[in-house]
Amino acid sequence: MLTRQRKQHLLEVLKQDGQIVAKSLSEQLGLSEDTIRRDLRQLAEEGLLQRVHGGALPVSPAIGTFAERQQISSDAKPAIGRAAAAMIQPGQVVFVDGGTTAVQLARHLPRTLKATVITHSPSIAVELVEHPHVDVIMIGGRLFKHSIVGVGAATIEAIGRVRADLYFMGVCSLHPEAGISTGDFEEACVKRALSEAALQTVVLASPEKLNTASPYQIAPLSQVNGIVVNAAVAETLIAPYRKMGITITLA
């Protein structure tokens, strides 16, 4: 089998099975694991999959610019934002992440809600400027332009001084085995700090992020209390998360 044919076969297996196990595939094709791993490495360099220990997973499409990501799942994100906003109770202190789905959460907060939103996202803060009863606390740091959020040591230090009731996390990827992950190391560190500083972590997961992986793990799914997903998502996709005891909210 030629290299091009092998790679095409690997992508077809990934699409069909949702994962590639290098050892099993090498036995099936009668090839060495080294050959399969080399092909996977090259496909990962082309951005066509995400390598993980023992094989590969689908790569998240949520790695484009902020403007590009606004066009992905544009119908699902407002519903997810509305459902997440309804979870916030009066008087709570809430971390709200950056990202296009989190912006929808901010837009759907009830005008009567009295609460405190702490965010490292200028986009979220601007969305809440006209909200009459929500106090907004901004966390600074170096601006990570891809996600329009603050990152770095100063950001993490400020987060560590807060104890929030809820953290609404935006992610690039969510997978039962690979956990929650994103495409930038520093951003992963900030998200992890936010989760550790909150009593509960709720992940905002638009459909394209489910069962994918990104390079930097934020945390295992054991750290997640809830996931908000679009109601149209197939039950087979969310069943593994239900089995882990995670509360699934269909938006």
Automatic annotation (TrEMBL):
Keyword annotations for this protein, in alphabetical order, are:
DNA-binding, Repressor, Transcription, Transcription regulation
List, alphabetically, the InterPro entries matched.
Answer: Carb_Metab_HTH_regulators (IPR050313), DeoR-like_C (IPR014036), DeoR_HTH (IPR001034), NagB/RpiA_transferase-like (IPR037171), Tscrpt_reg_HTH_DeoR_CS (IPR018356), WH-like_DNA-bd_sf (IPR036388), WH_DNA-bd_sf (IPR036390)
Task: Show where the HTH deoR-type domain sits.
Answer: 3-58
Pfam families, from UniProt? DeoRC, HTH_DeoR
Q: Name one GO molecular function term.
A: DNA binding
User: Would you say which domain of life the source belongs to?
Assistant: Bacteria
The name under which this protein is listed is: DeoR C terminal sensor domain protein
